[in-house]
Amino acid sequence: MNKKLAAALSGGAVLVVALTGCSSSKDSGPDPKLVAWAKTVCEAVPAQDAKIRSANASIAAIATDSNLPPKDAQKTYAQAFQDMADGYKALADAISHAGAPPGVKGGAKRQQDAAENLAGLSTAYVDLKKKVDGLDTKDQGKFAQGLHDVADQTKEIGKQNNSGTEALKRLEQGDVQEAIAKQPSCKVKASSSAPAASG
Fold this sequence. Notes:
This protein is mainly alpha-helical and about 200 residues long. It has helices spanning about 1-10, 30-40, 45-65, 70-100, 105-135, 140-170, 175-180, 185-190.
């Protein structure tokens, strides 16, 4: 049962790979104000990405341990979901507080969409944590059924995740992408992330 939950979460929780710098062929470079904006956003990425990846790893680790007592499994899942919620909220806050990317047509809408999607993911993981906290750890059968329901819910979060990735990609188009490409913190994520980060 744990494997089903881990499978439902794997690959889906880390959408910050969308916030990666891909080089541009322009010679003039982006507006310095836009570069400063990108710096504000990118500074939040490494720590939160690490937190989300670590949460995924902890879930994957217990998926292979069929002898783990329900109470221990509950604690691990609850902490992982809380970390994911915190990570996505911090990213949403970073994008929200950065404001609209300067000089970018439709930038305010793209920024708002990205922030709202990330905030929505955070809320979804808070709900999952509450569900896990409420599971009956004294009854193995009920606990397994509860985890089954949690796994089903993670599939819905996967759809939200896809929307979040698309929103970040829209935010990163054009000059924004070039400005982000100049940020070392986002470049680090580009080099260490999955193939989806290639530009």
